[in-house]
Amino acid sequence: MIGTIILIAVVVIIIGIIVGLYNSLVRLKNEVENSWAQIDVQLKRRTDLIPNLINTVKGYMKHEREVLENITKARSALVKADSVKEKAKAENQLENTLKSLFAVSENYPQLKANENFMKLQEELSSTENKIAYARQHYNDMVMYLNNKIEQFPSNMVASMFSFKEKELFEVDEKDRKPVKVNF
Amino acid sequence: MKVRSMFQERRRNIIMSLIVMALFLVLIAGLGAALGLIYQNAWMGAIIAGVIFFIYFLIIQKAGKSAILKMGGAIPADPNKHQELINVVEELSLAAGFKNPPKVYVIPQEGLNAFATGTKPNESAVAITEGLLRRLNRTELEGVIAHELSHIKNRDSLVMLYAIMLSGVVVILSRILLRSFIWGGGRKSDNKNSGAGVILMIIGLLLAILAPIFALLIRMAISRHREYVADANGAILTRYPDGLADALEKISKQEHTIKKVEPSVAPLFIENPLGSKKGFLSNMFSTHPPIEERIKRLREM
Prior knowledge:
The structure holds 2 protein chains of 2 kinds.
Chain A (H helix, E strand, L loop, with lengths): L1 H57 L6 H16 L3 H21 L4 H5 L1 H36 L3 H7 L23
Helix pairs in contact in A: 1-2, 1-5, 2-3
Chain B lengths: L1 H37 L3 H30 L3 E2 L6 H14 L6 E5 L6 E5 L5 E6 H6 L2 H16 L2 H35 L4 H44 L2 H12 L27 H5 L6 H9 L2
Parallel strand pairs in B: 2-4
Antiparallel strand pairs in B: 1-2, 3-4
């Protein structure tokens, strides 16, 4: 009698633990997916801002065709990119080309005084920060999920329900170098 | 590890707010019972107080945030004038993983301060004085906002919201109770007086005197340690603790504290708006840890 009660109690506790671990894995997986969507929203926001920026800048920067072309190229690479890795790479390239554009714009006082340009600059740099912060949150969540998938005892539940580890939104060192600007 | 500790902070605070509510329920029911005792019916008093508590709790849930914003004198931020502030709040909300950023408010005063309130991230608000907004650069502003968002993320703002609104009730109830003793005392002595009744009356009287002090202490005990936690978690969001440290240094050098702030909302602010005095008593009743200690801890991160 007592034996069966203990047995039932042990089974109930084990099921309870499994349910708890499973639910926390699901919650984290959703959190990762949601934070990925947040990065995507910001990336899209920026790709939408770039045609505006180029239109504003074009009239002033007659001699910087290369810079503008680089931006357009990086932008279309980002639009085409699909996986986390590709997006991270394209994102980084775009960031670098934009940096060189804003560096070059120092040579054009009239452009710098343009109200439209100033607004775009604030908006782009804010979007830049948003991408960085969304990426930070995404990576935190991915790390936390991956830890859970690897660590005991949640790894058993994870493999039972085939939870997959997610990719970090990382930047290769070689992509991090600034794009050369020819003056 | 950092992420895990944040989840734990939130869980701790949700449990904490349940405890705060249970404590207040007991306290309020006790006051109600003592109040009922005057009319020979302690149970009735406790039940009525419980019902009032429940209704009040529903009101807090719905309107607590806007009540606190009003008490703090905050008005909604203007996108034309405060674009940078709104951007910073939106940026750091992404870092904190909020689905929607909190509403942004400014307090049209010169004092240097900021606070956050709300029951959950989607239902919350941050407010900052115009004086502070003007004096901070962007990284310092990011530090301050990250600190406030950490309060929301950790649900400190939830605990504080309950604590502030509920301790208000205790104060009102105990005032009614004290007054009833003064006015109803004469009538009571006409009835036959048992020894137990007298003891209960004394307990009730003690409760009435102690309740506001008790409520105050709970509120302060909740908030002091939370400031360090919010500083640390804010640094996790910005990954730059010196931003907040610089901002706190500017705040600590201010001459004027905010005027027209209700003492009951003081624990909400990033730095005690009523000004801080030195000494044992002020330390025990202080809502905030010493600012120098906070700066030191941030610099060491």
